[in-house]
């Protein structure tokens, strides 16, 4: 037996926290939140760990040294001699490392398996108790749906944790000493790309959903088909319910083509009247026609749109997220009455259609989390008349269709970001009568102050000034939250007559590739 075959056989046996991980040589790529959690976990398991990253936060480096993890600061566009000498038996890469990264290509040519943090977490999920997993992906709405599902499960007395791409590594949840009954795992397309759908590392979730699919991160995946194929992995091996979006045919096809466990059901959700085995809306009432015996002739009432409106949850795309989350937790046995009561206490995250201020009849809304055209479209549809602050890093996505679709609701547009020319050209082609203001500032500290000033100069009573960038934030900001905070700061300063700049605190950017796809 070759050394590679022997190593592969050992890895196949590593499907429990209580398996023998001792001495396993593992190369960890990335030193952000995920990479640190991977290295910490493997060290606790007794593996021999080398962490490689272009840069490493000093505090994390000190902790890694204390727990016995070797740290290699080195550009990752080539294979360092130290990595080759280490001869890893396994590589665990943080989300976002592109498949053509030099170290991943080297691992492939050397026959060294490459895992992501999600596969590792699944294999060691039984440290405290093996919780059920519910998986959530989609181009937009992942975080809201993940948080909703975890909230609804907790309201039913279950220990539930939202984790994954939402910001809390799954490995941290798995190692929580209190244990959980259910993990609601938000998965990016990067994380799904790395997942196997069969074999020892394949996930077997209780329920799963792909909320929607629109072109995004094509520069990373290479094509729309490759992006969709990554998203489709969310349904593999699902045990109880594959939840899909009736308004998005791609998600229906994903479910139809998925290899699931016997007895798993396809559950549709949408804003229209639900059929049997669906969730939907009838005369303003959110309904479940899936999890009841007489689903062919009746439905269960969950909540009304009128009840959701005061909580800021009445926008159509948020209602869709609520239906999806309800379907997921109904698969886990949560009663509709519990869902109704819990929704009365739920609030959206910051920077997700968040009203910042209402002044002079003008509403100022922060939807900085609308980082692609699909998300921005959902946000635009929630308001009848908009001054639209848009732009950033477009990631190769075409914006013509988005601009053309919303000409009728635009009072004006304020264009920010490094990819301004594509947006300005799109407005010239499809919305030539809409006033367009271009913020050409390169200084992060002045972008939002100028954007808000332009918006205030043209907004009228009844308008909504909407930050829905349809683009990533990393061209000028640390992340979407930094962009949103700076917008909110600029709005409040302007309305209070203090608009002399746009300095807002921000979180330092992680040094591992962005995972939010």
UniProtKB/TrEMBL annotation:
<keyword id="KW-0132">Cell division</keyword>
<protein>
    <recommendedName>
        <fullName>UDP-N-acetylmuramoylalanine--D-glutamate ligase</fullName>
        <ecNumber>6.3.2.9</ecNumber>
    </recommendedName>
</protein>
<keyword id="KW-0131">Cell cycle</keyword>
<dbReference type="InterPro" id="IPR036565">
    <property type="entry name" value="Mur-like_cat_sf"/>
</dbReference>
<keyword id="KW-0963">Cytoplasm</keyword>
<keyword id="KW-0573">Peptidoglycan synthesis</keyword>
<dbReference type="InterPro" id="IPR013221">
    <property type="entry name" value="Mur_ligase_cen"/>
</dbReference>
<keyword id="KW-0961">Cell wall biogenesis/degradation</keyword>
<dbReference type="Pfam" id="PF08245">
    <property type="entry name" value="Mur_ligase_M"/>
</dbReference>
<keyword id="KW-0133">Cell shape</keyword>
<comment type="similarity">
    <text>Belongs to the MurCDEF family.</text>
</comment>
<keyword id="KW-0067">ATP-binding</keyword>
<dbReference type="InterPro" id="IPR005762">
    <property type="entry name" value="MurD"/>
</dbReference>
<comment type="pathway">
    <text>Cell wall biogenesis; peptidoglycan biosynthesis.</text>
</comment>
<comment type="function">
    <text>Cell wall formation. Catalyzes the addition of glutamate to the nucleotide precursor UDP-N-acetylmuramoyl-L-alanine (UMA).</text>
</comment>
<dbReference type="Pfam" id="PF02875">
    <property type="entry name" value="Mur_ligase_C"/>
</dbReference>
<dbReference type="InterPro" id="IPR004101">
    <property type="entry name" value="Mur_ligase_C"/>
</dbReference>
<feature type="binding site">
    <location>
        <begin position="138"/>
        <end position="144"/>
    </location>
    <ligand>
        <name>ATP</name>
    </ligand>
</feature>
<keyword id="KW-0547">Nucleotide-binding</keyword>
<feature type="domain" description="Mur ligase central">
    <location>
        <begin position="136"/>
        <end position="328"/>
    </location>
</feature>
<dbReference type="GO" id="GO:0016874">
    <property type="term" value="F:ligase activity"/>
</dbReference>
<dbReference type="InterPro" id="IPR036615">
    <property type="entry name" value="Mur_ligase_C_dom_sf"/>
</dbReference>
<keyword id="KW-0436">Ligase</keyword>
<feature type="domain" description="Mur ligase C-terminal">
    <location>
        <begin position="351"/>
        <end position="470"/>
    </location>
</feature>
<feature type="region of interest" description="Disordered">
    <location>
        <begin position="495"/>
        <end position="517"/>
    </location>
</feature>
